[in-house]
Automatic annotation (TrEMBL):
Residues 10-19 have a biased composition (Low complexity). Signal peptide: none annotated. Coiled coil: none annotated. PANTHER family: WD REPEAT PROTEIN 8-RELATED (PTHR16220), WD REPEAT-CONTAINING PROTEIN WRAP73 (PTHR16220:SF0). GO terms for cellular component: microtubule organizing center; MWP complex. GO terms for biological process: microtubule anchoring at mitotic spindle pole body. Gene3D superfamilies: YVTN repeat-like/Quinoprotein amine dehydrogenase. Residues 1-20 are annotated as: Disordered. The lineage of its organism: Eukaryota, Fungi, Dikarya, Basidiomycota, Pucciniomycotina. This is WD40-repeat-containing domain protein. It comes from Phakopsora pachyrhizi.
Length: 613
């Protein structure tokens, strides 16, 4: 593994790699920097600053043409084609002050520390975007890596911009920008290529940019959870990302009282919609056309945990008052049971299994045939797309039996962060006990925090909050029947592969809590960081070792010290889209790590690199 030097940035989320893997975008204060991933040389550098030092502009610009969002003028887009005669970008309207901030400018803005957020590349890696939040206004800057001048900037006023790093995102085509307004007002789509005078608005999104929306696998359609004004039911809108016309709009069932997550399957045929964890453990499978296909609610009085669609109806366009009443009565019974359970529990006792919370996250397998559901109850359920029933239930409340790879203690200090350290095979008995959550405090340390599928769907990695030092890896490899002779003596026929139930492959145990993990997009390699000066890579088989005896090979995990001269503790690790490098970042700096190609793996096993502790 080769590492670049450290480079500064504003935060752990202010460095992003381009989709083609050639560039890395960094935000440092008010400046955007684009570097080459091969030489790390600076290709472009822009200082994002609004003209006139953000003072309200009351002048009449005359010939300048600006696109206005609506009559309130809460957003203004100025593009490269509508510059003033002097060649500078200027706003055509007076600045509209944000409702969340004081209506007067600060006494001194010279010492005010400003930083850029929501930095990202477009899908074609030719444009970059950044959001600058300030005391009285918010500005979105768009640049092209082929030009020093900005392509456009969008001035946001009273409606504000939602919190989070996904508040400003690119459309899959890279020709439009999506801005999520604060207060859940709307999603505004600004086209950088269209000549239309007004942007497109998607009204009444139920959630912010992090949950409640998803693109289809091809990027052609966009699904959005909506809660219309005055309505008591959630709706789903399907929009064409070329014209942004609504192609499908349907009401969800009454069983979804407060839907949260929405996830489009990789095959494009299913939408998984999750009920709020405060109400129920429930996920419904819908088609993009508005047909409900299945319901999974294991803690309800339904056979096999799946409710009957005949009783509840496929298309709940009309509210069923009797069904609503039955569902509410069922919820009351569930809450009464939880109340009785809490009274019976003594101080310090933790109930097994279901503790009254629902689904925490969901992840589709790469082909869309399996859906992994991680709950607050510490269990992972795998649904198949034939019957939408659980093919297995993985209980991670306690450590399961399996092969354990444990990190040697103090190896970073003893090796000064140099070399490669293989993890040791130990017993489950040597692992630390799971954390005992305190249910008297908010956000207890329970539940499946993260689920990740490998690029080919053969492995699944899970993290449980009650065991923060551990990653569980399960194998979903298919078995192939033995070859049988066919009618032609010269050929043999092979029976089709049959999917197996998941098998525990490894339990990865680290000294520090795991902060981030991610599979390589091209190979079965799992990268993880633990806020230490090391990068960890898991392999299904030990690299650089040839299996000459056809014996069963075991997996391999190694810790790689990051050679930094200053303290560097990465909290995020992300593979570039081509899988050629890993971007590791902490709060103050970032670096790129380049895995050694497989044809050079033999050179990485010399004694100067591997430390024997």
């Amino acid at each position: 593994m080769d590492f670049t030097p450290l480079y500064p940035h504003s935060s752990s989320s202010s460095s992003k790699a381009s989709s083609n893997g050639r560039y890395v975008l960094t935000a440092v204060g008010e400046r955007l920097i684009v570097r080459s991933t091969t030489t790390m040389e600076i290709i472009r550098s822009w200082k994002c600053q609004q003209p006139d030092n953000l003072k309200p502009s009351l002048m009449n610009t005359g010939k300048q043409q600006a696109l206005k969002l609506h009559e309130g003028k809460s957003q203004t887009l100025t593009t490269k084609s509508n510059r003033t005669a002097s060649g500078n970008l200027r706003d055509s309207d007076a600045a509209v002050l944000s409702l969340r901030h004081p209506t007067s400018l600060p006494a001194s803005t010279e010492n005010q520390q400003l930083s850029l957020t929501c930095v990202s590349f477009s899908s074609n890696s030719q444009h970059v975007v950044a959001l600058l939040r300030q005391a009285t206004s918010t500005v979105v800057f768009v640049y092209s890596i082929s030009s020093e001048e900005p392509v456009a900037h969008i001035k946001v006023g009273a409606e504000g911009v939602a919190a989070g790093e996904k508040a400003v995102t690119w459309s899959p085509s890279g020709e439009s920008l999506m801005i999520w307004s604060d207060w859940g007002l709307r999603v505004t789509i600004w086209s950088l290529t269209s000549t239309q005078s007004k942007p497109v608005q998607l009204h009444s999104p139920k959630h912010g940019p992090s949950i409640g929306s998803d693109f289809s696998p091809t990027g052609r359609y966009f699904a959005l959870l909506c809660r219309l004004p005055g309505s008591t039911h959630d709706h789903v809108g399907i929009y064409d990302t070329v014209t942004w016309a609504c192609v499908s709009f349907f009401e969800l069932s009454s069983g979804l009282m407060d839907s949260t997550h929405l996830s489009w399957s990789p095959c494009g045929r299913y939408l998984a919609i999750v009920e709020s964890a405060l109400f129920d453990y429930r996920v419904e499978i819908w088609s993009p056309t508005g047909l409900r296909l299945a319901v999974h609610a294991p803690y309800h009085d339904h056979p096999d945990g799946v409710s009957s669609l005949k009783d509840e109806g496929h298309l709940p366009k009309v509210s069923n008052q009797l069904g609503d009443r039955n569902h509410i009565n069922s919820m009351k019974k569930d809450f009464s049971k939880l109340g009785d359970l809490s009274k019976e529990l003594k101080a310090g006792e933790v109930p097994d299994g279901y503790i009254g919370l629902g689904i925490r996250n969901i992840k589709w397998r790469c082909g869309g045939e399996y859906l992994a559901i991680g709950g607050w109850d510490g269990k992972v359920r795998i649904l198949n797309d034939l019957t939408w029933t659980p093919m297995c239930e993985i209980d991670l409340i306690e450590y399961p039996s399996g092969r354990v790879l444990s990190e040697p203690r103090d190896w970073i200090q003893r090796t000064c962060g140099q070399g490669i350290i293989p993890f040791e095979a130990t017993s489950v008995k040597n692992l630390t006990a799971p954390l005992r959550p305190d249910f008297n405090k908010p956000n207890p340390t329970i539940g499946i925090r993260d689920i990740r599928w490998s690029h080919d769907g053969e492995y699944m990695a899970c993290r449980n909050d009650s065991m923060p030092h551990t990653i569980f890896i399960f194998s979903f490899k298919a078995v192939t029947h033995m070859q049988t002779p066919s009618t032609d003596s010269k050929t043999t026929s092979t029976a089709p592969s049959v999917p197996l139930r998941p098998r525990m492959t490894s339990i990865l145990h680290f000294v520090a809590p795991v902060r981030s993990m991610m599979w390589s997009p091209l190979a079965t390699h799992l990268a993880a960081v633990c806020a230490t000066s090391a990068l960890y890579i898991w392999y299904p088989t030990q690299p650089g070792v040839q299996n000459l005896n056809n014996t069963e090979q075991v997996d391999y995990l190694e810790g790689i010290g990051i050679p930094a001269r200053v303290p560097f503790a990465p909290v995020t690790a992300s593979w570039t889209q081509g899988g050629g490098s890993i971007l590791a970042a902490d709060r103050n700096a970032f670096c790129l790590a380049f895995p050694i190609p497989e044809d050079h793996e033999g050179h990485r096993r010399d004694e100067s690199m591997i430390m024997d502790l």
